[in-house]
């Protein structure tokens, strides 16, 4: 935890002079999504509050916001922990992804589409794979799907899916072989991008439907081996 708090102190400058619980929650959400605080980690109020230079009340409000987003869980007389998802949670995340992401592609309208962000995410994933950094490949994959959702041009949809993707990262962090998990989607992301570059939104939607179905099966299979069907919300 000492090393984590030292790194977290670097984020203190992001708060500026108008520190708010929302800004603290943004920082912690990003850190959780990046695996800085892995699932099951107990979050120290004193340590994190000191590292960020914020009051206990501000930090507790940030914790409350992230608990509402299902990234944290409060255990009576034990503290606040980064949530450990159940298999049912993972399945629900993918239901939400399928509903939203496929609807975004279906509603794109006439081409051309603004695909610079998607293209950059594909390049990011390929670069990470070349460097054998499979955790970074997973991050690039999340970036790809965030950029896909952003094609809807809806701040509300972006905000909804920001929380969904952060939850998804909690599942990714439990997986013990990120290479096997993420490698197949490098080419599938590129195929999706190429379909959209051709203006073939219907073809892209079909690819995406199959993509998400296959991804769910793969993640659940691996996740069940690691956590089980009734995974705890925090460590015993």
Description of the molecule:
The protein is mostly helical and 236 residues long. It contains 11 helices and 3 strands, in the order ααβααββααααααα. β2 (72-75) and β3 (79-82) form a beta hairpin. α5 (87-106) runs antiparallel to α11 (201-226) and α6 (116-130) packs antiparallel against α7 (134-150). The two termini are 18 Å apart.
What's the arrangement of secondary structure elements?
Layout: H1 2-9, H2 21-33, E1 42-43, H3 45-52, H4 56-68, E2 72-75, E3 79-82, H5 87-106, H6 116-130, H7 134-150, H8 155-174, H9 178-182, H10 184-197, H11 201-226
Antiparallel strand pairs: 1-3, 2-3
Helix pairs in contact: 1-3, 2-4, 2-8, 5-7, 5-8, 5-11, 6-7, 6-10, 7-8, 10-11
């Amino acid at each position: 935890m000492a090393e984590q708090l030292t790194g977290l102190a670097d984020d203190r400058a992001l708060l500026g002079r108008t520190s708010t619980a929302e800004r603290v929650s943004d920082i912690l959400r990003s850190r959780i999504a990046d695996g800085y605080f892995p699932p099951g980690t107990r979050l120290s109020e004193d340590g994190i509050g000191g590292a960020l230079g914020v009051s206990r009340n501000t930090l507790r409000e940030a914790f409350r916001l992230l608990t509402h987003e299902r990234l944290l869980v409060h255990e009576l007389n034990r503290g606040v922990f980064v949530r450990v998802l159940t298999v049912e949670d993972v399945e629900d995340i993918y239901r939400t992804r399928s509903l939203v992401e496929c609807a975004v592609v279906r509603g794109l309208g006439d081409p051309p589409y603004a695909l610079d962000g998607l293209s950059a995410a594909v390049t990011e994933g390929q670069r990470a794979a070349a460097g054998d950094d499979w955790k970074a490949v997973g991050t690039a994959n999340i970036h790809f799907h965030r950029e896909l959702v952003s094609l809807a041009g809806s701040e509300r949809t972006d905000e909804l899916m920001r929380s969904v993707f952060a939850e998804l990262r909690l599942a990714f962090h439990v997986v013990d072989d990120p290479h096997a998990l993420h490698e197949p989607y490098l080419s599938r992301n590129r195929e999706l991008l190429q379909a959209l570059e051709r203006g073939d939104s219907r073809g892209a939607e079909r690819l995406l439907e199959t993509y998400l179905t296959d991804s769910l099966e793969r993640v659940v299979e691996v996740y069940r081996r690691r956590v089980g069907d009734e995974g705890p919300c925090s460590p015993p």
